[in-house]
Design goal:
The chain is an alpha/beta fold. Helices cover 32% and strands 27% of the residues. β8 and β9 form a beta hairpin. The chain binds S-adenosylmethionine. The site of S-adenosylmethionine has 18 residues, from loops.
Length: 314
C-alpha cells in the first residue's frame, strides 16, 4: 500500500503489509535464526510429539511451519496473506498439522485449556494504546464470525467440538469492558492478550514470549534516531522517537522497492522484565525463567538482545 492510504491508528494492519512481509521474510529473518528459535521453544516448553501449539501473531508462519513437523499447530494472525504463505507448499503430515486461523489475538476464538503451549514471538506484544483510536479490542471483528480448524483436529479430539466458535457474549463483553477501562491512565489494552493466552493454555502448559529489551533499544535509538539500510531489492529508512510518558517507541519506516514505496509506522509499548513477569503472574502463570536470547543465556537488563519469558500455567 502507498503512503497515507490507511489511517495511522490502524498501524497494526498497514505496517504488516506486503513489503514488510517480503523484507523480513526473505531478508532479515534467516532460516537459521528461525530454526534456532523453534528449537529453543521446543526445548524449553518440553513439548511431546503430537502436542497442541498456538502460535499467536504467527505472521508468515516461520516458527509454525517448523513446529508442524512434530506438533499440531494453530498459526493465528490477522493478516490472511501471511497465513497463506504459512501454509504454502507444506505437504504430508506437517500440511495436515498446521491450521492457519485469521483472527484478532485480543479475542481468541478457542475454548479454555485447549493448548499445551502458546507462543508470542518477535515483538508481537504492546501494539495497543490507551488513547482513543480504532485499536479497541473489537475493531475488525465480525460478531457472528466463526473460525473452524481443519476437520482432522476435531476428529482426533485434539480440540473440543466447540473449538473455534467465537462467542461474542463473554468475550465481547470482556473486550468492551477493557476498551472502556483503557480510558483510565492505568489500564493497558495489551493485557487482554495475556488473559487470552492464559485461558487457552491447559494447566501445566507453557507460554513463551519474546519482547524487546528496553534499555539497549532506547540507547540505540538515542544514538541513532534515524537509520537506513538496504536489503535485496529494497531500501529501508527508519526514524524513531520515544515517548517516555506513555513508554511508547514510535517508528516511521519508508520501504522503497523497484516498483513500490510504502510508508508505514508502528507504536510499540515497551515493558521491563519485571512488568512482564508481574502481568503473567497476575494471570495464573508461573514464570520459570527469563532468558536474554535464544542461545539460552540469562537475561541482563543492560545488554540482552531481548526479554524471553518462559512461564507455565498453574
Ligand atoms: C512482528 S510480526 C511477528 C510475526 C511472527 N511471530 C514472527 O516471529 O515472524 C507481528 C504479527 O502480528 C500480527 N498482528 C498484528 N496485530 C494483530 C492482532 N490484533 N491479532 C492478530 N495478529 C496481529 C501482524 O499481522 C504480524 O504478522
Amino acid at each position: 500500500m502507498t503512503a497515507g492510504r490507511r489511517p495511522e491508528s490502524d498501524w497494526t494492519v498497514s505496517y504488516f503489509g506486503r513489503v514488510y512481509g517480503e523484507v523480513y521474510r526473505r531478508h532479515l529473518l534467516s532460516p537459521e535464526r528461525t530454526r534456532q528459535e523453534a528449537e529453543f521453544a521446543k526445548r524449553v516448553l518440553g513439548l511431546t510429539p503430537g502436542g497442541r501449539v498456538l502460535d499467536l501473531a504467527a505472521g508468515f508462519g516461520r516458527h509454525a511451519r517448523l513446529l508442524a513437523r512434530e506438533y499440531w499447530v494453530v498459526a493465528l494472525d490477522r493478516n490472511r496473506e501471511y497465513l497463506a504463505t504459512a501454509r504454502k507448499g507444506l505437504r504430508g503430515a506437517p500440511g495436515r498439522r498446521l491450521a492457519p486461523v485469521a483472527a484478532d489475538m485480543r479475542a481468541l476464538p478457542f475454548g479454555a485449556a485447549g493448548f499445551d503451549a502458546v507462543l508470542l514471538l518477535f515483538n508481537s506484544f504492546g501494539y495497543f494504546h490507551a488513547e482513543p483510536c480504532d485499536d479497541t479490542p473489537a475493531a475488525g471483528i465480525s460478531h457472528r464470525e466463526v473460525w473452524r480448524l481443519p476437520r482432522v483436529f476435531y476428529e482426533r479430539n485434539l480440540v473440543g467440538a466447540d473449538h473455534g466458535v467465537y462467542r461474542l457474549g463473554a468475550l465481547g463483553r470482556a473486550a468492551e469492558a477493557r476498551a472502556g477501562a483503557s480510558a483510565s491512565a492505568t489500564a493497558d489494552p495489551n493485557m487482554i492478550i495475556l488473559d487470552g493466552a492464559a485461558r487457552v493454555l491447559r494447566p501445566g502448559g507453557g507460554f513463551l514470549m519474546e519482547q524487546p529489551n528496553p534499555r539497549p533499544v532506547l540507547a540505540a535509538v538515542a544514538e541513532h534516531p534515524r537509520r537506513h539500510f538496504s536489503v535485496g531489492r529494497f531500501s529501508v529508512e527508519e526514524e524513531f522517537r520515544y515517548d517516555p510518558a506513555r513508554r511508547v517507541l514510535e517508528n516511521r519506516t519508508v520501504f522503497r522497492g523497484p516498483d513500490i514505496t510504502e510508508t508505514a509506522q508502528y507504536r510499540l509499548r515497551l515493558y521491563t522484565r519485571d512488568e512482564l513477569v508481574r502481568a503473567l503472574r497476575q494471570r495464573g502463570l508461573r514464570v520459570v525463567a527469563v532468558y536474554g536470547g535464544y542461545d539460552g543465556e540469562r537475561y541482563r537488563a543492560g545488554d540482552s538482545e531481548c526479554i524471553l519469558v518462559h512461564a507455565v500455567r498453574r
